[in-house]
Amino acid sequence: EIVMTQSPATLSVSPGERVTLSCRASQSVSRYLAWYQQKPGQAPSLLIYGASTRATGVPARFSGSGSGTEFTLTITGLKSEDFAVYYCQQYNNWPPTLTFGGGTKVEFK
Amino acid sequence: EVQLLESGGGLVQPGGSLRLSCAASGFSLRTYAMDWVRQTPEKGLEWVATLSGSGSSPYYADAVKGRFTISRDTSKNTLYLQMNTLKFEDTALYYCVKEEGFSGADYFASWGQGTLVTVSS
Question: Per-residue pLDDT tens for B52-80?
């Protein structure tokens, strides 16, 4: 099983700041990496797929990068609606054993 | 517009059974792979099972293999998860999820709101 590790677990930030979240895979997943945002009481929603492609309707302040085992989600100019938990997920293996990272909570400083 | 509406969750004793349903609208289950993903505060998000768009290739997480069965009724455009021999550790919020692709092992494009399963004596 490919283990996904996210860091940090919690990030305390202020609106307007630039935020960088990390996700590491225990083995290469190429660019088969997605990011999701989850707000309290809601289901996760897709932000990024293919490591760097924004899903439909996702603002340009969200960007993803990386390949292989190291990935980054960057939020440039954090807005109040961005305070949430962010998860990465790999979808590289077959037969499928899709795995998620433990999440990074972006909270108000 | 894609909509996924889960139902069937509830309280069940260890060793019991439960069947979750997911009514899909806005697309056909024949054209996308579908999954069940569960979430707990302790373990976070955990993939449970996948069914390809052809309906012929189910895959399961090791934790549920042999106990859970994913299936669908295309005439009702509804996905199911039959859960047998339930354990305490199966307690979770279960999400029905639509993949972007057909064959399985893709990213999750759309999520339902979830149905809560509690296994307790």
Answer: 999 988 999 999 999 999 999 999 999 99
Q: Please give the interface size between A and B, counted as residue pairs whose CB atoms are below 8 Å apart.
A: 58
User: DSSP label at B89?
Assistant: G
Query: Taking CB atoms and an 8 Å limit, are B44 and A102 in contact across chains?
Result: yes
Query: Is B42's Cβ below 8 Å from some Cβ in A?
Result: no
Instruction: Decide: B21 and B7 in contact? Cβ < 8 Å.
Output: yes
Q: Report angle CA A56, A50, A19 to the nearest 5 degrees.
A: 75
Distance CA B14, CA B84 (A): 10
Averages of pLDDT over each 10 residues, chain A, 109 residues: 96 95 97 97 97 97 98 96 97 88 96
Q: Do A97 and B61 touch (CB under 8 A)?
A: yes
Residue of B nearest to A93 (CA): B105
Q: How far apart are CA A83 and CA A20, in angstroms?
A: 13
Q: What are phi and psi of B89, to 5 degrees?
A: -75, 0
Q: Please count the residues of chain A.
A: 109
